[in-house]
Amino acid sequence: MKLIRTSIGLLIAFCAISQQASAAEIFVETESFADRGGWKLDTQFIQQMGSPYLLAHGLGKPVDDASTEFEVPQSGQYRVWVRTIDWVARWEAKGAPGKFQIAIDGKPLSETFGTQGAEWSWHDGGLVDLAQGSRKLTLKDLTGFDGRCDCIYFTTDQDATPPAEQGVLSDWRRKQLDLPETPATRGPYDLVVIGGGYAGMGAAISGARMGCRVALVQDRPVLGGNGSSEVRVWAMGNIRRGKFPRIGEIVEEFSDHATKSPGSYEEFGDDLKEQTVLAEPNIDLLLNHHAHAVELDGSKIESVFAFDTRSGQEVQILGNLFADCTGHGWIGNWAKAELEMTETGRMGMSNMWAWDEEAAPTDFPQTPWALDLDMADFPYPRDHHGQWFWESGFDKDALGSAEAIRDWNLRAVYGAFNAMKNRDGADKHKNAILTWVAYVGGPRESRRLMGDVVLTQEDVVAKRDFPDGCVPTTWSIDLHYPKEQYAKKYADNPFISVAVHDRRVDRSYGYPVPYRCFYSRNIDNLFMAGRNISVTHEALGTVRVMKTCGMMGEVVGKAASLCALNSCNPRDVYESHLDALLELLKLPGKAHRSTPSAQIIIPDDILPMAGPQGPMSGKDPKKEDGIVLDDKDATLRGNWTSGTGLKNYVGWSYQYASPKSKSSATFIMKFKEPGKYKVQLYSQAHQNRATNTLVTVLADGKQTEHRVNQREKSPNDILTVTEVDTGDGNRVNVTISTEGADGNVHVDAVRLLKVQ
């Protein structure tokens, strides 16, 4: 009897296996749809949920359908499974904003998706009869509020449930996609750069121009990272200055010059960035490729594995050197590089947004699932945009909870706009519309990979001199914290931040960050550039802005060429070839060579050499009539602040001081020809300036005092103070003082103009 039971059990099991083996299966990833319609390809959270997906980011208006054709191998009744999520369910919020339907040959399934599951999971879509042949599959957004769909699975085995995803490109998914066991290979390259933001672009272009064969791997369809049209953070950090004023010239070629943050789509120049990279014959650009693993040989990276985020096709990228420019330090993490992540006090992620006003009233749907906000619960989005301080995720898991942090930001934005349209702001915003909300987040802080030097706040402030100091960081030590007045209602995850600045950083010359922060201390062939370099949490506050990150990449690219030339590792460049690196850092950004051993060519169209204080942003005093001294040539006493907001200034900036600051600026004007001169001030008018600024003039032993009005506009922003006769002297001293001033005193430049 026992034997019979066993035999029957085996027979049943065999039948089940046979049925499963004969079951027809169809697997469709939404990222591979032929027509995405208005749905966006979201690749930010592949490491968390295993795959790219399509996102219906319509700002409250349903987006156009996404559609594709698929083949049915045999007629029959199929069970439909859809991998999706109810993206507000993790907070038990009311409603399901991400609802969507799936239609086959134009007929929607009875089930509505995006309505269940606080985590990504399979939603049973019921049974459908499919005839053999080509069928049309359509995603139909119902809300415009960020519904999301990863993939659709059909099976004639109506009792089968697809497995939960286990990591990126799971074995089950590989089988469904019929991916080859061995991926295609590319390379070997001298340098493989992973991450296409400012740091990665700087590294790739610099390395390629110094003769390296480079692969640049970027998981988005555009380059620029936070400085792309997708995130729209304007590029900050002064370039082309300090010890090596040529560093930053490459960044200058592709950097945006946005007037706002967030600015307009056009201001961020996605096409310019791509064209700049594609112009380099030594670069292979792999857009839409997500790196997800590395292959190691001891303490050395042999290759990086990446897959096409549109098709799933995998590629193994071989290289001699690798640069982690991912921001999150993914490559270093997989390679077991030594790293740190600050436990508490970390900065968060921003999703900026913009709104406008139509000529006629507009509607906006009620958002019961968004954050419950009234107008007093958030800073009013002046100038029609929500800025960098719409930031959350402080001390949350910046990696594992990245999607939840982004989604919390979306709930905050939609809740704020709901308050403007449907709550206590409704009367003043009848014509308001949402025009743009970033669905790609702008993160600030996560992993930092440790190098032979870990830069500290004290190093930067004290201007500690490292022999390999090279990249000038000029941004203040800028750390973000939740803003208390808005954090009371949402103490667990505040969504408005405040920046706390340590302004002791030299903003003009810059602090030279050492090269040893740009390579791993324990992975032999790993560089890093960007916000994941070897610094402390505090020092990250100054180095993390984009132009500074781009300059790091420029240094990494040049160092990589020395590694290729000398068959050595990044540490060896410091220990044995530092002089050669420092010489390369003096080259113009457009200098190039075909291979690391070829002759360097300096083209005719290089940028003019900038000085230690950077390229002059104002009028060149040497090109002005007469004898002109800039404020940098003055002896300053007291408390002066540098400014550039009032245009038409001379040199790099101007200075201003408050009336009670007891400040003065003295110019010693030397000349060769004695005679009669006009004493003039370059002075840009402003309503907060003094009407009675004291100017003391010493000429031919005679001292005179004068009061000038710096509030009124003067011709070409030049005020004439007085005329002097120099006698036989060869100098005139001019002192501008705050003594007795009724407003801020402005110091830009002083001119002696000979009276003809």
Tell me what you see in this structure.
- With 756 residues, the chain is of the alpha+beta class.
- It has four domains: 25-177, Jelly Rolls; 184-342 and 446-474 and 509-585, FAD/NAD(P)-binding domain; 349-443, no CATH class; 627-754, Jelly Rolls.
- The protein is 18% helix and 30% strand.
- It contains 14 helices and 41 strands.
- Strands 11, 12, 13, 14, 15, 16 and 29 form a seven-stranded mixed beta sheet that branches. Strands 1, 2, 3, 5, 8 and 10 form a six-stranded antiparallel beta sheet that branches.
- Strand 6 and strand 7 form a beta hairpin.
- Helix 4 (198-209) packs parallel to helix 12 and helix 13 crosses helix 14.
- It starts with a helix and ends with a strand.
- The model is unreliable at 1-20 (pLDDT under 50).
Continuous helix count: 14
Which residues sit in consecutive blocks of at least 5 with pLDDT less than 50? 1-20
Secondary structure: number of strands: 41
Largest sheet: 7 strands, mixed
Task: Summarize model confidence as the mean pLDDT.
Answer: 95
Distance between the termini: 126 Å
Helicity level, as a percent range?
Answer: 10-25%
CATH topology of the largest domain, anyone?
FAD/NAD(P)-binding domain
Roughly how many Å is the radius of gyration? 31 Å
Class of secondary structure makeup: alpha+beta
